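User: Fold this; tokens only.

Assistant: Input:
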Amino acid sequence: MSKVFIIAEAGVNHNGDMQLAKQLIDVASEAGADAVKFQSFKAEKLVTKTAKKAAYQSKTTDADENQFNMIKKLELDMDKHIELKKYAENKGILFLSSPFDLESIDDLNKLGIDLFKIPSGEITNLPYLRKIAKLNKPIIISTGMATLGEIEAALEVLKKNGASNITVLHCNTEYPTPMQDVNLLAMNTIKQSFQVDVGYSDHTLGIEIPVAAVALGAKVIEKHFTLDKEMEGPDHAASLDPMELKEMVEKIRNVELALGNGIKQPSVSEKSNKEIVRKSIVANKKITKGEVLTEDNLTIKRPGDGISPMNWDQIIGTIATKDYEEDELIQL
């Protein structure tokens, strides 16, 4: 199995503070994630000034504030993007960011981003999909709130406009996602329907669901994290803290190892147990040379370094070629 690509989603959990943003990069790098991802947008290009916030956003931010004002405070200009990208490179972790408007696509491309992550909200944005596809770069696309038909339509647009390396992430956009709404098996429905690599973008509490997704075949895992779940901001409460992020990465890597190559055969570590745990045909009592071997004078016991019990029928009725003591291994 190829290594799972783990994206530590910093998102907007920097709260517009560059020091926090750099600390998030530190945490992602120390946890062993492959990439740390932010969000790139210009509030004026993203949302109307009267748009309402999602219910979960109202719970974790100023309830009287609209979506525009909330998002405006979380913008990072391109100078900050450049600074954060350099910082991430120095920390040995890939810097990514999801663009949320057409201008941000251009900005990230100029910045030298070689992998584009399309957020769930843009899956029905035709001009946006066309623009990213024409960059001819690897794409990861989240599918929260989408039907199978909408995923098919988005993939068709991407492929028609030059995209060829596409990974599709199953996702639920509720923060946090109720367990009964995860529908993790839909990830494999996507894989079977479109013959693409798949992954999972997780918004549940805890780490067990992304780990389970890896066991089901996810090639990419994306998970929000924060420095402190108690901080004010739309996504902190449903994010992992630094210790949880590290634990998630460790458990994913363990699952990768455990999945193996799919060939059923004795492993290196268990080969020495074979003779200890398996059984052989042995004398159940003293047997004299020339005596007929029967179900009465034979039995099956450990160790397994003699005649296999699978040969029981072939041994019954043969003649003992030597004297045997009780518990002695029968020989051919």
